[in-house]
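New to this. Explain the following:
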Amino acid sequence: MNELVNSVHHYGAKLCVQIYPGNGRLSYDASMPPRSASATTSVLGSDIKCIPYTKEEIRFLVEKMATAASLAAAANADAIELSAYGGYLMDQFHSSQWNQRTDEYGGSLENRLRFTTECVQAIKKVIPPHMPVIVKYTAEDKINGLRTIDEGIEMAKIFEKAGVDALQVCVGIKDNLYESIPTVYSKGGNKLEAQKAVRAAVSIPVLGDGKLDDPMDALSALENECLDYIGLGHQLIADASWTNKVKENKLKDIVPCIGCNECLLSEIKGCGLTCAVNPLCMKEVKYRLPDEKLDKKVLIIGGGPAGLQAALTAHQRGFEVEVWEKSNTLGGTLWAAGGPCEKTSVINLVKYLIHQCEKYDIDIKLNHEANKTNLEDKTFDKVILATGASIFQPPIKGIEKTSSVIDYLTNTHLEGKEIVVIGGGLAGTEAAVELGNQGKNVTIIEMLEDILFLADHTANNDIQLREMVEKAKVKVEASSMVTEIGEKFVTYNKEGCSNTIKCDVVINATGFRANNQLEDYLYDNFKDVSVIGDAIKPRKILDAVHEGYHAIRIIK
């Protein structure tokens, strides 16, 4: 740890070490019952009961927390933070929902906080007096019947009285995980109301995060006395130079976090930390661009995220680069991806990529579709096919009567009140929510057993989007196969029965198909060709951005 501390100090920064005593009821180890404050149910299922910690075991945990803090202090770390939030073990002691103890660690709020305050006091005995101890805690659960901000304020006062030097204020628990870990659907500053209430009640500094990656939002949080310190987690994974770019007023050069939580998902999968918009995340040395300057001429076919990332990377390597885009707009399907559900962070990515291309005067030809005729006799050292994907047209009678989900998400307006969306993947579900929020009666018809069945995203994204479906009053007909689309009706088969829905508009969101028609021709006529992004097969922003970067990085 000392090596890490020294590395951080070399840059004039400080290192705070976060410690915590375990997950409690949120443990996913099915080999043994989890331990918690009380015999509450485990996250693994209502039939699995937690084993309560004895008082002796609690004192043992307190001692070990102090030991952990002393090790961080010995390594010259600058602060200690106790993770006591979000429904994890310490928060299970805090909450009357999970703590039904009748001894000195249960009952009153002060008793329920005793485990944490004893940890604070034990830690302070073994670390230098100047070393701050911070507690990260949940001030409001944001679920009816659970902790309100009033209790959260009283908790803050107890922590301050116990000698805590600063508070990191969080909201939400596992059941509404998107509150504590915001998503692409979350608004900026989603925790500020609770943070401001706590800050007004205590005299110690209050730290906080909550999608404050927009510098104007961060500045507003400070000026409005919501926070003393701004926390940036995911944004610094997307762009570690955020603070320097803000300081230098280079706001348009900030790589925006899009709230996709691919960083969290990759960790959960055991693949290590990654980032959709930062191909160099955790690979800053391994994947850095070669210093060698090469005289290369590169053609990129397609101006979506994959193509634009490839173009910017080619510019960084000093290559001569052209981008051919068949439409009159750059950004590809990112405009559609950012259209519904106030996904402004995705639109921010489009704007960032376009701005960077304009800033570096990259040669972009709009309304210039690549074909065999205009590629003939061209000489390029590298050709990259980044033509993305188009909506799939399934063999359904009347499919030509539908509107493409891409067209809708780009224009975001449809006439008519009764809407049927065929396909309950991400695009179809988000379009349905957007339409439902406009007051339209929307039905999703999905052939699989549930909407979002194949969506490869984190739990917080999934929980929030499903709640949005419910709030928008979208109806779902799962395990259903559309058999015919007519004028003002859709017929589908469910459990062997034929059903018909009257509707004004039908949206086709059945999936996407790669636009790779030029692939064989390119391989036959150019020496070095790469196919990237959705032109391989429809996938994620992460795949497009990373493949755009690496297609150029590996050129020799």
